[in-house]
Amino acid sequence: MYLTATTGRAVVCPAGFHSFVARRCLAILSLIAAASAPVAAQTSRVFDSGIVLGGDWLQANALPLDRDAVHSGSVNLSLRRHSWGVEAGFLRIARTLSTVQGGTISAGPLLHWGPVLFFPTVGVLGGKAEASRDSTGYDFVGTGGVVGHQPRYSYSSAGTAGGNVALTVEAPLFRALGVRAVASQWYFGGAPLEGDRQRFLVGAGLSLRVGR
Amino acid sequence: MMRAHRSLLARSTRIALLAVAPLFVAASCNENLPSGPNTFGATIKISVAHDTLVVGDSTVAQAVATDDNGRTIQSLTYAWTSADGTIVGLADPGSNAEATAGRTRTLVGKKTGHSVVTLALPDSRFVVSNVTRNETVVVGGVKVLSTHDSTLTAVNDTGFAIAAGLVRSNGALVSRVSQGLRWIHLGSHTTVVGTGDTIRYIAKSNGADTLIATHDLCLVSAKCADTAVVHVSQQLTLTISDHSFLAWSFSDSLGPTATLADRRGNGLAGTTIRFIPATVADSAVVRVSAPLGVSNPSTGRVAAPKLISIGNGTAKVNVFALAPDGISILGVDSLTETVRQVARRVAVDPLRALVTFIDSIPIKPVARDARGAEIADATVTAAVTGSAFNNGIWLGPNPFAASGTQATITPTLTGIALPSSNPLAPQVAVVTDQAVITLGALDTVKAGTTTRTVATTVFDSNAVAAIGSWVRFRASAGATPDSVQVDGNGFATVNWAPPNLAGPYTLTGVRGKQTPMTTVADSAGRIVIRRSVVVIASDPDALNSTVSVSATTIASNGTASVTIVVKDRFGNTVKTATPADFALTTSRGAFSALACVQGVCTATYTAPATAGVDNISVKILGFDIVFSPIVLTIT
Predict the structure, then answer these.
(1) pLDDT in tens, B196-221
(2) pLDDT exceeds cutoff 70 at B230
(3) Between chains, do B23 and A90 touch, taking CB under 8 Å as contact?
(4) Most A CBs within 10 Å: which of B12, B20, B33, B38, as the mutation test of the A interface?
(5) Which of A98, A91, A76 is nearest to A162 (CA)?
(6) For the segment B133-161, what is each residue's pLDDT rounded down to a tens digit?
């Protein structure tokens, strides 16, 4: 179960959700954020202006990661101007059989709800996609009629570009340090991801305002 | 203030960069995304219920692949090939997914043979070797479609044997041609031509052959051989060239050519032809010779006997064709032969002879056919000059004829033996042979010198010298001369020595014949010599002549008869003796005149007037004859 919103009502998304469910959750969160915007705008907050450095661990909804690799995550630097913000960073999405990583740029309004900052964004990514695909394995029938599959992976990598919508929820933690939760839905291009172009990320991280 | 702010910003930026740096480092690390394996080890095999297929039948073969762990790999696509698709075909998979992918494949037996079915897995993921399976396509049996038992009735007749292999069609075994049958031919009475389903057999000799249709590739437990028996039994037909014959002479050899052949004109080695006169009467007309000629089985010509005419008349002769076993009769026919002797010569036998005029010989008027055979029923009359016939067949004796004369006998033929009486016979003029008989004088020979040389010309029935023929002799007494052969001049010459015993002797010479001559009829016409001589006593001989006296004591002046029997050295009385042939003397008495009659001479002795002794002596050529001298007592 994921608790993804702080508007006083909880939105519960089932674990193991797939992309369709993820998109619905994200849409709901975005509406809640938009509805609370007038309230947030009336309150001054630590992270609504200046330069904020953020980092997220984004593997929450894709565990376990069945390979020896760095988990999904992102770092970004955002420039915030009370009602809007832009950010640039690096995003890595690791899945058992794929990795997408590259630089991102996103932008969106800053919405406040009490001390909590909602930062819905849309963004783009340019980078590299790698994937191993079990497209040439075989099925078998073992002893006792047990049906199984013997995978055979084909590795490919290529440049990729993608776009996303995301919602970042930040709350001040200590002075310039904040905690935040992120949910985003990505869609990528590129040959390695053929047939598997969507990625939904849920994660959490820290924000550090490093400048005004 | 501004400076402080910038300082704070720079520090925060450095902190942020320090925090982000590990992420970039991490991003450059090995992703350890799984890859491969490039290939899998696997084993494939063909699973099929039977490796043997009947033509027309099919079986489903299954491709099975197992990986190195012994697990059966699913959903692969296989490739099947048959080394000879004309033997083992691969059925069209149609729309069946399993078959399309080659996971199963229906193998179809198309024709007999062996073919290797190969299963391949054309999948680069797997390192696997092709596997093969030897499939054998067989027939489900062999069946002779033509008759199983046939008979050819002529050599070179042809028949056909047809067989087919049994193949599967709609679940049932049906015959189908061109399945590569093989025939086994047992026997030598036919020859077989061709191969395959249909063969041709050609009759060559009588007997039975067996033809076995079989197949080298045949289903076990099926009927893999079928048999046809071919009998060759020639149906022979007896054909004789002619059914009627005419013979104009005895010893004519007539007969038809006989053919014993089947429809195609082929004979049978070992067959024979027999002629058998139908009745005893027929056997008196013809006799049957041994087979003449050479049989030729290739044409059916069979050596056949000949009918040899031996009597006038018509004979029916049955003709039998016998099988090589000499018993079985293959064909029967008959023929007739009419024998009618027609004269070519007419004569009176003997044509030449030497006969003492006081003798007679039986003559034989005879007509002969072209082969010299006498014509028994010919009517021949004879007329003689220089002699006379006596008692029918006897020529002579003719006391009126002088020695050295000849009698001539001329025959005349009339009646049935004339060619003109037999219009179908060759109208050849009859040769008339006159007989010339030499009438010899009666010889008188002295005992001791009786040997005579007798010679005469001997002719045969054709009136030519019968050179080489034998003349057999018989003497009325004494030694019989041995047989003599007629010499190159046509003479039969014999030295005949009648006995030294006085008397008449006759030598008879006949032309020999194979059968004994026991009757006059047998020897009629065959006596070529009948020579008579009279042997007379030789000169008086003291040793055999005798003297006798009627009394040896005689009174004085008394008389006695003296008898002298004059004989020659052989004891013959010298009938011609005269007193001159001996000397009769006495010492004192006297003799009357001698009188000789038939070799006995007598005289009367008159004793002297005085008593005493007297002697009578008879001498021939100075020698006392027997009992001479005789001593007389005169009283």
Answers:
(1) 899 999 999 999 999 999 999 999 98
(2) yes
(3) yes
(4) B33
(5) A91
(6) 999 999 999 999 999 999 999 999 999 99
> What are the beta bridge partners of residue A188?
A162
pTM of the model: 0.58
Q: Is the pLDDT of residue B88 over 70?
A: yes
Contact A138 B70 (CB under 8 A): no
d(CA B625, CA B616): 11
Q: What is the DSSP string of B75-102?
A: S---EEEES-TTTEEE---TT-HHHHTT
Cα(B509)–Cα(B353) distance, rounded to whole angstroms? 9
Distances (CA, A) of B127 to B43, B67, B121, B203: 8, 10, 9, 65
Task: For residue B279, count other CB atoms closer than 10 A to its CB.
Answer: 10
Nearest to A138 among B24, B33, B75 (CB): B75
Q: Specify the CATH architecture of the domain B345-536.
A: Sandwich (2.60)
The token pair at A73 is 């995550």
Quick one: fold of B237-339? Answer: Immunoglobulin-like (2.60.40)
Tens digits of per-residue pLDDT, B539-563?
A: 999 999 999 999 999 999 999 999 9
Q: Please give the class, per CATH, of domain B142-232.
A: mainly beta
CATH superfamily membership of B546-634: Immunoglobulins (2.60.40.10)
Question: Which residues from chain A sit within 8 angstroms of residue B9, using beta carbons?
Answer: 51, 210-212
Asked if B456 and B531 count as a contact pair (C-beta separation under 8 A), the reply is no
- Is residue A19 predicted with pLDDT exceeding 70? no
Residues B175, B156: Cα–Cα separation, whole Å: 30
Q: How far is CA B24 from CA A68, A96, B46, B471, in A?
A: 17, 20, 55, 163
Model pLDDT, residue B11:
57
Q: Cα(B97)–Cα(B223) distance, rounded to whole angstroms?
A: 39
Residues whose CB falls within 8 Å of the CB of residue B487, separated by 6 or more in sequence, listed in order: B467, B493
Residue from A122, A81, A118 nearest A104 by CA: A122
Q: Which residues contact B617 (CB under 8 A, 6 or more apart)?
A: B583, B584, B585, B586, B624, B628, B629, B630
Residue B403 predicted with pLDDT over 90 = no
What chain A residue is nearest to B123 in terms of C-alpha separation? A136
Contacts of B75 (CB under 8 A, 6+ apart): A138, A139, B101
Q: Which two tokens stand for residue A163?
A: 């776009």
Locus of tokens 């007509």: B367
Tell me the CATH architecture of domain B2-138: Sandwich (2.60)
Q: What is the ipTM of this complex?
A: 0.74
Whether residues A69 and B16 touch (CB distance < 8 A) is answered with no
Residue recorded with tokens 């104009």: B248
Domain with CATH 2.60.40.1080 in chain B: 2-138, 142-232, 237-339
Q: Is residue A188 packed enough to be buried (19+ CB in 10 Å), middle (13-18) or exposed (0-12)?
A: buried
Tens digit of each residue's pLDDT (9 = 90 or more) over A109-155: 988 888 888 999 999 999 999 999 888 889 999 888 899 998 888 88
